[in-house]
Amino acid sequence: MTHVKAVLFDLFETLISEFADGARKVDRANRNDAARLGLTHEVYRKEWGARSVKRSTGAFADYFAAMRDLLGGQNAAVPEQVLRELYEERVLEKKAAFADIRPDVFELLERLKRGGVKLALVSNCTEEEVVSWPDCGLAAYFDEVLFSYEVRLAKPDPSIYKLACERLGVAPGECVFIGDGGSDELNGAKAAGIRAYQAVWQLPPSMRERDSGYPQLVTPLAALDVV
Ligand SMILES: [Mg+2]
């Protein structure tokens, strides 16, 4: 342990994973959300993706508001029952990511806490994606939790990292950020003045080989060498 006062962690594909043995824990192959909504797959994916930033920064009140906006834009009817089912399926799909968390992730957090390092979670997400957070066992380790939809800021906006630092009472230069690199989060951390490391322990080999430009941590406990 050195001079690092705080670690900011990403959540998905860093502390938890939607994948196991190279496949999604919840198979989506046979789902056809678009057809259930009366839309083509192409239109649905495009419109869902187009609302990604607004969804993750809380611009919509919730999943249902986002979906009503999407359907309204297509002059499509709003099938309330289908929306409720899709919401529940999303909750369950994301819940799976919180199961079977690696023991060495817990060990890392335990050792950081014992070393007096403050911890913040900085996650781009929507409400239905993190329903399982309070009960997953990780929450107890964190001094601050910044869900993008709650703070209305999302990575890679430097403001969300700076807000995390403010809440922890530390300067960006006293922190490190650790994440798999999704949402351009490593560049965002750097722009906020925070040293960034790429967590690759959940990533498939093909993605590890892609150079992020940031030092890689191959296992959770390797983080102890840079903190
Ligand atoms: Mg991630």
Q: Would you mind describing this structure in some detail?
A:
The chain has 227 residues and is an alpha/beta fold. It folds into two domains: 6-21 and 99-225, Rossmann fold (3-Layer(aba) Sandwich), CATH 3.40.50.1000; 23-97, no CATH class. It is 38% helix and 13% strand. It contains ten helices and eight strands. It has a six-stranded parallel sheet with strand order 5-4-1-6-7-8, with helices on both faces. Strands 2-3 form a two-stranded antiparallel sheet. It is globular and about 55 Å long. The termini are close together. The mean pLDDT is 96. Residues 10, 12-14, 179-180, 182 line the site of magnesium ion (MG).
What is the secondary structure topology, with strand pairs?
Blueprint: E1 6-9, E2 19-20, E3 23-24, H1 33-36, H2 41-50, H3 52-56, H4 63-73, H5 80-97, H6 103-114, E4 118-123, E5 144-147, H7 148-151, H8 158-168, E6 175-179, H9 185-191, E7 195-199, H10 205-209, E8 216-217
Parallel strand pairs: 1-4, 1-6, 4-5, 6-7, 7-8
Antiparallel strand pairs: 2-3
The structure holds magnesium ion.
GO molecular function: hydrolase activity
Protein name: HAD family hydrolase
Keywords: Hydrolase
